[in-house]
Amino acid sequence: MPVSDFQPVIGLEVHAQLLTQSKIFCGCSTAFGAEPNRNTCPVCLGMPGVLPVLNQRVVEFAVRTGLALECTVKKTSVWSRKNYFYPDLPKGYQITQYDQPICEHGRLVIDTPQGEKVIRVRRIHMEEDAGKNVHDASGGQSLVDLNRAGVPLLEIVSEPDLRDADEAVEYLKAMRDVLVYLGVNDGNLEEGSFRCDANVSVMPKGSSTYGQRCELKNLNSFRFLKQAIEYEISRQVDVIESGGKVDQETRLWDVNKGVTRSMRSKEEAHDYRYFPEPDLPPLHVSDAAIDAAAKALPELPRAKLTRFTSQYGLPAYDARILTAERPLADFFEACAAHYADAKKLSNWFLGELMRLLKEEGTPLSALRFTPAQLAELLGAVDKGTVSANAGKDVLGEMFRTGKAPADIIAEKGLAQVSDTGAIEAVVDDILAKNAGEVEKYRAGKKQVFGFFVGQVMRAMKGKGNPTLVNDLLKKKLGD
Amino acid sequence: MALTLEQVRHVATLARLALTPEEEQRFSTQLSAVLDAVAQLQSLDVEAVEPTSHATLAESLLREDVTRPSLPPEKSLANAPAKSGTSFAVPKIIE
Fold this sequence. Notes:
Distance between the termini of chain B: 38 Å
CATH topology of the domain at 5-42 in chain B: Histone, subunit A
Strand order of the largest sheet of chain A: 3-7-8-11-1-12-13-14-15
Strand order of the largest sheet of chain B: 2-3
Low-confidence stretches of chain B: none
Mean pLDDT of chain A: 89
Structural class of chain A: alpha+beta
CATH superfamily of the domain at 5-42 in chain B: Glu-tRNAGln amidotransferase C subunit, N-terminal domain
Mean pLDDT of chain B: 88
Subunit structure (chain B): Heterotrimer of A, B and C subunits.
Number of helices of chain A: 15
Helix content of chain B: 25-40%
Order of helices and strands of chain B: HHEHEE
Organism (chain B): Pyxidicoccus fallax
Largest interface: A-B, 52 and 38 residues
CATH architecture of the domain at 5-42 in chain B: Orthogonal Bundle
Keywords (chain B): ATP-binding, Ligase, Nucleotide-binding, Protein biosynthesis, Transferase
Shape of chain B: flat
Low-confidence stretches of chain A: none
Distance between the termini of chain A: 68 Å
Family (chain B): Belongs to the GatC family.
Largest sheet of chain A: 9 strands, mixed
Oligomer: heterodimer
Strand content of chain B: 5-15%
Protein name (chain B): Aspartyl/glutamyl-tRNA(Asn/Gln) amidotransferase subunit C
């Protein structure tokens, strides 16, 4: 059977570092990039006799995320120990949640070529991150940095509802957008503060029994997620086609070779012997706390996208880009309050503004001009005070200096000539000087028109209002 | 309930314990006795009793999300058998 006779089945596990100041069970800083082991203390080093004390912000973030993903938030959840040995795990166990996680039964809607699709979220739980191992290139040792040990994580597990690599990528992007909107995670795949493992299996089409699954790791970009899943699907189909059977195992995505390979070292470790964490009592979340979190939820990316299309009449393409990040969406709305033509505004956002932001590497929060100033510039272009092209220069100047558009237009002499009399004089002059061309035009050689426009514009140093120039030329040439 | 030697070895491996054949025998007997005691408890009817995960009834205490000073790395690493800079050094981890 070819690959097309098999149905892939995919579930994703997302690990998101929470944007807290301090670690989950101690007061050490979560700041990234400190000298190794600078942010460690007896609690996160796993010294004997210490006790964990839960960071309340972690609970708030978990509840907020659970509500945003339409989960049931459990009023009682229980901490467990997951036991295994690894150099980056100082205590020999990870404090996590196992059989009673804080949130269950949620959903996330994604876009597919067939339309909207609901991906169920099985559970969300809180846990501590492990440290980081650095493999010393020079010698026979590995180095352990425990700054990350104890940084709070949310693990968000989907049901196996995804059916191909593209859906998996859409899900992961949508999940990242939600977490970033909620302010609980920075969404950085490359630095590893937003991570993803994929469970992949294949079954013959029409079957109702899932095949044996493999867990893929090291998927630190959307591209790698797609490539690894596609590779893994064809690998599993090959194994089955050649009469073999897929082993349940953990496989690592090898970026350089573009293959997944078995991590045999992880196999026996799957016997984690979970038991309730004796150092932490069950966690209770009150109805009042859940209600308060629900009331404080921001508008989520998907709802905002829908609203941008309906309220502003924008195409889905525009709305998607404008709502990808909350600050950009907020800035757009602030501008739209001063300027009625949302589509025209969107064109400036998607074109010039985003180009400037990217080129200058400026965050939106550092913009020097106000929404009202941007609206003023667009109004000037509409009125013909400046040409659209000169308007772009004005925006660039506003971006760099924060000066008002009117001042820039005046200083740089960018104002467009819209005085009909002034333009008419130039047009008459050009036509008089080019009698031969005028003759040709009247004889039917219409392409000469562009020549006249060019001549007039040159004579006016590019400042003639193009619409008026065109209109007057046509009138004078008798069209 | 008798624990097989195979099971004793598996648990020992997970706990990173190297047992002699005599110890394997001894722990097989001892661990079996523990399991028997638990099995006895399991014969009780606890249908109407809510499962207990903790012996105390303490409410979860939460702390504010504020940082406190960490240890200086020299102190964090004071007991390390081996170190390199301010990192713990361990035998090479092979993947």
